[in-house]
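Re: the request from the purification team.
They wanted to know what the chain is likely to look like in 3D before they choose a buffer screen. I agreed to run a prediction and write the result into the notebook, where they can find it.
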Amino acid sequence: MTEAKKIEIYTTDYCPFCKRAKELLNTKGVVYTEINVEAESERQKMVQRTGGPRSVPQIFVDGELLAGGCDGLYERDSKGELDLILGLK
């Protein structure tokens, strides 16, 4: 079995895309850290990490930005790539 990856997801409480992304991660059974960016200080930290994007969700796996947010997450899953990215294979 591969070593667990560090997964971080930047979210807000009211974002439907954040909810969908978390639902997919939950179905995969992975542990992730959720960082709520409703506080401007947290959003600024996210923007520094993303290099500019302010929209959520922003998802990092082992410190690397998974481009595309929720849509990118689902796209990688439909291509069979997500399990490998998340360290499940």
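For the purification team: The CA atoms of residues 47 and 54 lie 6 Å apart.
Please add any questions underneath this entry.
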